[in-house]
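batch_manifest entry 22 of 60
target: Dipeptide epimerase
source organism: Hymenobacter sedentarius
requested by: lab member K.T.
priority: normal
notes from requester: please return tokens only, no post-processing; we will run our own comparison against the previous entry in this batch. if the run fails, retry once and flag.
--- input ---
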Amino acid sequence: MLNSTIQSIEIFKLFLPLKEPFVISLGPINEVQNVVIRIRTADGCTGYGECSPYLTINGESIDTCFAVAQYLARGLHGHDALDIAGCVALMNRIIYGNSSIKSAFDMALHDVAAQHAGVPLYAYLGGHADKVLTTDMTVSLGPPGKMQADAIRFQQQGFPAIKVKLGETLEADVARIRAIREGIGPDHPLRIDANQGWHTADAAIAMLQALAPYRIDHCEEPISRHLYMDMGRVSAASPIPIMADESCGDEHDAARLIQLRACPQFNVKLGKASGLHKAQKIVELGAAAGMTLQVGGFMESRLGMTAAAHLALTNDAIHHCDFDTPLMYAEDPVVGGIQYLSQGVIDVPSTPGLGAVIDEQYLRHAEKRVFD
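--- output ---
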């Protein structure tokens, strides 16, 4: 019998430049600041995981993740890597919250487990490569003219849908969408994300009604995540379907929103859910409730987005993918992983496991901790 005991865990800081700052209503992102986890088992198997912490969303930074990862590594060392549920439970006993760094460990464990099973990660998760995944492309928050130019460029590059960051005043955000529609025409699929920027239910309802003429597919997180009790009122009054993002972190949040009939759509992210183990629970709940689901991410590289793509192949309720942030990188640190084809099509690796690793040259000189 193969020995799947965790023999060593390595923790790396990964800093990478972006082509240009990525701006949302919660603030600008000027560079990638991620943490990479590498788990080796006694039989020589190696699994990779990655997280992209967000101070304003999951309350984590590269430094908090690096510190907490050391607690988690000490706890997990010597455990069976194939006992993912047990490892997840152990991480939760070690420390509350910290969903971002836990997702990196969870991802690496799933990589190991799928390799042991000799199947691609999507198959290990119960999925099938029987549907075509496509990603949208996101227009960063900025002046209307710049946003219009970016949207036109993404349309010309063949992306099947354009996502637009909003979250400021009614006048400013309507002007942005008006300019974009004038640039890309009335028919190209358009989605919006306020990142909680409209704050209150009344402000959000006014904004969503004002944006109705511009044919918006859906709107992510229009109000403060703390006002989830008001989300149902926003959904009922909105001509645009509402998708919960920041307010839907794990399966407990998902169950609450379903019970409240708060919204018809969820955006599932590994960094919010603490990884694939819990993200699958959200997907199952949403699918059972007849919801439309999206799988997205933060600023993960193609490694983290590859894990998200494997998840997207597990359930027909997952209609949308938001896997564009690696295209914003000035450098690509990943070997293998998803490939971006024409028309926004995502090609998911079919090799056993995750099918992606971080190029050793990016880890060789990185700040790291090793537990073996």
